[in-house]
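Example 3.2
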Amino acid sequence: MRPAYTIQSDWSKWEDHAKTCDVDALRHVINDCWTAAIAMRSHNKEKEGFYMDQAYTYSDELRRRPD
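Structure, written as tokens:
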């Protein structure tokens, strides 16, 4: 059973996927992750952190893209 928190393989999977996304898709994933993190805030801190980690990983890829 996988833990609710982020593990190393999650970051690798997200980084690989983010590289294949266009800018619109990256923005969509980031927004979706933030929405999920906010929804988890009041009752599941591990999942909140998981979605925040995911949002940051996709945000890093978006920042690497040229304007």
